[in-house]
Amino acid sequence: MSAVDTWVSAFHARSAQQPGAALPWLADLRRQAIYRFADEGWPTRRHPRWQHTSLAFMDQQDFAANAVAPDAAAALARLRGDDAGHWLVFVGGRFNAELSDIGALPAGVQLTSLADALDQHPEAVQAAFGSATDGDSPAALNLALATDGAWLRLPRGVALEAPVHLVFITNATDASQHLRNLIVAEANSEATIVEHYLGEGEATTLTTAATRLQVDADARITHLKLQQEAEPAIHLASINATQARGAHFASHSLSFGARLARNDIHTRFDGEGCDTLLNGLYHLDGRRHVDHHTSINHAQPRGNSREFYRGLLDGNSRGVFTGRIIVAKDAQRSDAMQRCDNLLLSRAAEADARPELEIYADDVKCAHGATVGQMDEDSLFYLQTRGLDDAHARRLLTYAFAAEALDRIALLPLRKQARAALMARLPGGELLEELL
Amino acid sequence: MLDIKNLKASVEGKDILKGLDLQVKAGEVHAIMGPNGSGKSTLSQVLAGRDTFQVDGGSVTWDGQDLLAMPIEERARAGLFLAFQYPVEIPGVSNAYFLKAAVNAIRKHRGLPEFDAMDFLTRVKAEMKAVGMKEEFLYRAVNEGFSGGEKKRNEVLQMALLEPRLAILDETDSGLDIDALKVVADGVNRLRSPDRALIVITHYQRLLDYIVPDHVHVLSQGRIVRSGGRELALELEEKGYGWIGDAGEIHAAPPAAGGAQ
């Protein structure tokens, strides 16, 4: 029996216990998805969107739960501090009401676990759920197996002042967790959603995650993902947004953990005058691998997109970035800008940055650039002539390189959380603590 | 304080310093002048420890120690300061953090207590006022988007904060208008003291109207070809560098005005 069959069997064994199992549309959708996954298997380098990241090894990969679960309450307390906000905590892929604190919400806002939403608003959830043909085969596996996630629906004109934090923590019973988050932001609404992925331990675990965001006319949604899974973990995720006229969507993807992390981040402008920011930062060491596969579809005119990815690559790690920008034939006066910059902290680290531009309109501004470089010797020398030793100077410049990505996070408390997560990864980060 | 003997240095196989001698004593101000390509900046970079230049011979002694054997930061901590001709921009690091890290690295080495945030701010704000820098420059990234004059002021600010024993100003006047030049020169002059030495590297004598040197040296083709007092700078201003032969041979005396080769 191949590993793909293992997942199919797992699906059949679990499907009756899945949330919403009694909903025929959902049972159908899950079946279609698992069949698709069984049919396609894990993507390999032959797949055009997986040329730098093969999941062929997943056929032989055994997954196991960690022997000891992280102390979820303690991890949450560290993360949360004294933030009031809206906190939804998922342990081992299931909503944990005890640790969660959804807080007070403006009238009409729905913020619950996906399982609850399937009970309470199955039709709205169905409209937002997505289809079995979305994304590549790992996305189909996620659809088939997802046990829970968050449901957020913002009525027209409502702004959530405090960010919504979704915290996903591994446990000691599940070797894999599969999460699906659905966000529907009606016209003129506004919110910030933060996904935290936390894990500890020596076992190889699998997380699949899919977040779908519907951003209606003139709504403003900021999404921040902070991936800090345990070092041996595999993390396969997608973020899919659709934007209606004048909608604003910002995505910040910070990838610091996991042995292999793949993030597919896509947005599509379905109305005129949309704008989007895709900001990303990854730090890798050892033999770890991260792949961001992004696309921005300027399907309608006068859209504005800004995309900035930065990688810090140490050891034998490999960072992959693909930035696809599509400008449709009638999407005149589109303005797209993309950059990917990588700092290699060792000789053996490797960075791939691939812009993929498909431009069918003629009145378009589109700029892209990619750099892969080592620590700037002039800057190092300058700092050393001011009395900083080599190690301190290197740390400072490494931090400085990443800071440009962090500075694009507009909300200060979130920027601080992101900084703290980065500092925890950088050797000698404590020397730089005053920067916080 | 500083004793350079027969210093030879090259970059990528090209000889730049070809046997340079210079002695600097505490309290002295030395000006080093010379045409482009004579080795002025190489000298400053070699003294500060830049490893892109290879030292091929000679010695540099700093208070009896072999300066060339010291790591870059040790030279700085021992009191050597280089004001860069082209200060480096460091996006992502605030000037405040940079200045504080530098000051504390050096204070620690000198056995002084490190400044806390309050003490540091009080000190840095006073020094910024003296060099005519607005406080906002503390919170901007190091040199990023600074004008030429602002970068040079930031160099003089660092010098004031780090209190070096020997400061080398590498073409600190380049790219400055006359007002900025005066401010920078005032900043430097405030730091003149009997136990502090200065080496002022410049192409033009104009800076020396404001920072008056005790000794002037003419550098050509990697050697000091002539040394004198302040009057030598004025003579160079009048006659240019043309009297220095192409091969760097030394004429007995500069030719009369207008007689440049």
UniProtKB/TrEMBL annotation, chain A:
Protein family membership: Belongs to the iron-sulfur cluster assembly SufBD family.
Positions of the SUF system FeS cluster assembly SufBD core domain: 168-401
InterPro entries (UniProt xref): Fe-S_cluster_assembly_SufBD, SUF_FeS_clus_asmbl_SufBD_core, SUF_FeS_clus_asmbl_SufBD_sf, SUF_FeS_clus_asmbl_SufD, SufBD_N
Protein's name according to its UniProt entry: Fe-S cluster assembly protein SufD
Chain ranges of the SUF system FeS cluster assembly SufBD N-terminal domain: 7-165
One GO process term, biological-process aspect: iron-sulfur cluster assembly
SUPFAM superfamilies membership: Stabilizer of iron transporter SufD
Domain of life: Bacteria
Pfam families (UniProt xref): SUFBD_core, SufBD_N
From TrEMBL, chain B:
CDD domains with a match to the protein in the record: ABC_FeS_Assembly
Pfam families: ABC_tran
NCBIfam families linked to this entry: sufC
InterPro entries linked: AAA+_ATPase, ABC_transporter-like_ATP-bd, ABC_transporter-like_CS, FeS-cluster_ATPase_SufC, P-loop_NTPase
Keywords on record: ATP-binding, Cell membrane, Membrane, Nucleotide-binding
Record family assignment: Belongs to the ABC transporter superfamily. Ycf16 family.
Name listed for the protein in its UniProt record: Fe-S cluster assembly ATPase SufC
Cell membrane keyword on record: yes
Keyword S-adenosyl-L-methionine in record: no
Domain ABC transporter: 2-246
Organism of derivation: Denitromonas halophila
Domain of life, source organism: Bacteria
Molecular function, one GO term: ATP binding
